[in-house]
Amino acid sequence: MLPEKYRSALGDIVLAGREDYYSLVKVDVKHGEYYGVPVNGFGFYVGHSNGFNVSYVELGVGLEEAKERLSGVDYQKLIHESGGY
Known about the structure:
8% of the residues lie in helices and 44% in strands.
């Protein structure tokens, strides 16, 4: 369950898929944007005791439009060392 202060902006937390080695958790975004591009939701692939973790943002536009609209954003690569995996 989401804390009260996030409920107006986000949908419910949903277990959208479960496989042997990971689960997919999704959260819809009701009213959000990223650098002016609409955001539809977030997804999280969570490993089952295997160190597998992936997060993504689901944008409300197609890939080519997203590339064009976000072309001016200065991204930096972040590296996280997770230890013995």
